[in-house]
Amino acid sequence: MITLRHHYNPLLLHFHAQNPQPKAPLKPYFPSPSSFIPALLRTTPTSLLPIRALDAAQPYDYESHLSERFSSSTKLKIAIIGFGNFGQFLAKTMVQQGHTLLAHSRSDYSAAARQLGVSFFLDPNDLCEQHPDVIILSTSITSTESVLRALPIQRLRRSTLFVDVLSVKVFPKKLLLRLLPPEFDILCTHPMFGPESGKYGWKGLTFVYEKVRIGEEAARTDRCDRFLGIFEQEGCELKEMSCEEHDELAAESQFITHTMGRTLGRLNLQSTPINTKGYESLLELVENTAGDSYDLYYGLFLYNPNAMEQLERFEMAFDLVKRQLFGQLHDILRKQLFESGGGFESEDGGEGLT
Fold first, then answer.
1. Helix 307-338 / helix 256-265 crossing angle, nearest 10 deg
2. Distance (Å, whole) CA 71 – CA 62
3. For residues 77, 215, 210 and 145, what is the CA-based torsion angle, rounded to 10 degrees?
């Protein structure tokens, strides 16, 4: 607290000069804030005393500034590399939560970025010089390595957190560990939803992650937790598991789902006036999988070592179903042919032999 003394404070002397008291000698005067500040505002040019807050006599309201800094510290500066359909899908929710979003992509998505409140950079050097807290790799699986190698990571802070959101996990885990210096943090994640399945919100949807390499400093662990908190805040079910376990499970669920959806899509199924609930589920499956790029499906096959086994099992299962159908049909035909007398009627009315 600054103490005002009348014999050397020029602002107080100015106050007394404008408010003379002829009936009494000039005495030390310590006005209360309620009487001093309004009079000072009337008689003193504002350039002499910039007021930051009426409850503070200091030139800076430290209490207000500390509160503002605390509030902003809970937010992240997030850069999305690969600002296509999925990158924009993530950015929309993150902006709504108050985070600062930057983006870079080989294609010019500046117009889409402006609509979402995202700063778009065509040059990755310019983006990295903004020193984001988090870098999200939202590229196609097949282009991830080339994009990461082209990124000027020397312009980033050495403790930057790298997050991938690819649909396979062992591949990016090994890639990030191999290409990034040990100072960078690595978080491998997979939102088990996309623009179609998550268009009405993320509540109840699964988010898988592995903390591959997170520094022990409190600031770095806190940053990782704050990033995961984005999905927790939206109501996602967070599941921590290794990238290896994820790929094993995803081959049975995600890859088979996409395979079935793309196979049914080849049939060009159409809605009918007598749809069953099961048939509507199939139509929805086709819609959800057809909305994803072929690069995604190809990446699920090529970069998940468990995918080939699942594809072979799918093929064997279909063959077994066909054999069961044809086998039962063969038994029925044999029964009709042989139990009816061992023959059949020919076209000319005669009897033919089986």
1. 50
2. 14
3. 70
Residue 3: DSSP 8-state: P
What pLDDT, in 10s, does the model give residues 322-350?
888 888 887 788 788 777 655 555 555 55
Phi (first) and psi of residue 349, to 5 degrees: 90, -10
pLDDT tens digits for range 232-265: 999 999 999 999 999 999 998 888 888 999 999 9
For 259-272, letters b (16+ CB in 10 Å) and e give bebbebeeeeeeee
Q: How far out from the chain centre does Cα 268 lie?
A: 32
Say which residues have a Cβ less than 8 Å from residue 51's Cβ, sequence separation at least 6: 37, 41
Using DSSP's 3-state secondary structure scheme, residue 278 falls into: helix
Structure tokens, 297: 């499906």
CA distance 183 to 158: 6
Q: What pTM was estimated for this model as a whole?
A: 0.68
CB 159 within 8 A of CB 185: yes
* Burial annotation 16-28 (CB, 10 A radius, 16+ → b, else e): eeeeeeeeeeeee
Q: Where are the alpha helices (DSSP H) in 97-217?
A: 110-116, 124-128, 144-150, 170-179
Taking residues 75-93, report their average pLDDT: 97
- Tokens 């600062």 -> residue: 100
- 183 φ/ψ angles, rounded to the nearest 5 degrees: -75, -25
Instruction: Kindly tell me if the per-residue pLDDT of 52 is higher than 50.
Output: no
Q: Tokens 């430290």 sit at which residue?
A: 62
Q: Stretch 189-197: mean pLDDT, rounded?
A: 93
Please tell me the distance from the alpha carbon of residue 170 to that of residue 177, in angstroms, as a whole number: 11
For residue 352, the cross-strand partners are: 344
First to last CA, the chain: 113
Distance (Å, rounded) from C-alpha 206 to C-alpha 240? 10
